[in-house]
Amino acid sequence: MTGVNEFEQRAAELIEAGRTLYQMGMVPATSGNFSARLADGRIAITVSGRHKGRLTVDDIMLIDAAGHSLDDRRPSAETGLHLQIYRRFPDAAAVLHPHSVNATLLARGRLEHLVLTDYELLKAFPGVDTHECVVTVPVFANRQDIPALAAEVDNWMERHAGPVHGYLICGHGFYTWGATVDDAQRHVEAFEFLFDCELRAGDMRRL
Question: Any idea where the domains of the chain sit in the sequence?
């Protein structure tokens, strides 16, 4: 597969993911950002400010592994968070960041992390083969200083012994990743279901 053809394939996958997640109400307005890593280390990423439900190949650009634009366009303002994931997880080849209602509401409180356990759908994540496991989802304060936020995320991951499949940002949505765009999208859907369960369980406890 040539570099050009690989870029076109990854771009097509990101475009389809954008349409699907928009239909699910998870990337309203121009929110969210997506990326996919190519075999040569370059990264296909959404251009800043583009509507994710109406992406075309012109809305996907290439950056190098350090985040520098390769075509003079401006990538997502949160490119640094994508780069942190790719540096931390060599097997990650796609990163998706939706702004779902459930994720946004769940992370608006003083929650430091979310503990997910005893859900069958946890098996959607790699390495999980039983509901009797614990998946911890850290929650980070929203901030405009992306390098500082990326460093905070990386420091948490460095100190945390268990597997990490995603994280929440207060009032801002969540990040997850996978070995392919399809894998990352599966993780988005799994997290969204689990976040919905947690919100509903919290409402029931308050009754």
Answer: 3-206
pLDDT, one tens digit per residue, over 24-65 is 999 999 999 999 999 999 999 999 999 999 999 999 999 999
Q: Which residues lie closer than 8 Å to 158 by C-beta, 6 or more apart? A: none
Phi and psi torsions of 161, nearest 5°:
-80, -30
pTM beyond 0.90: the answer is: yes
Please give the full DSSP string across the chain, using - where no structure is assigned: --HHHHHHHHHHHHHHHHHHHHHTTSS-TT--EEEEE-TTS-EEEEBTT--GGG--GGGEEEE-TT--BSSS--B-TTHHHHHHHHHH-TT--EEEE---HHHHHHTSSS-SEEEEES-GGGGGSTT---SSSEEEEEEE---S-HHHHHHHHHHHHHH--S---EEEETTTEEEEEESSHHHHHHHHHHHHHHHHHHHHHHHHHH-
pLDDT in tens, 122-174: 999 998 888 888 899 999 999 899 999 999 999 999 999 778 999 999 988 99
CATH ID of 3-206, from 3.90.190.20, 3.20.20.140, 3.30.450.20, 3.40.225.10: 3.40.225.10
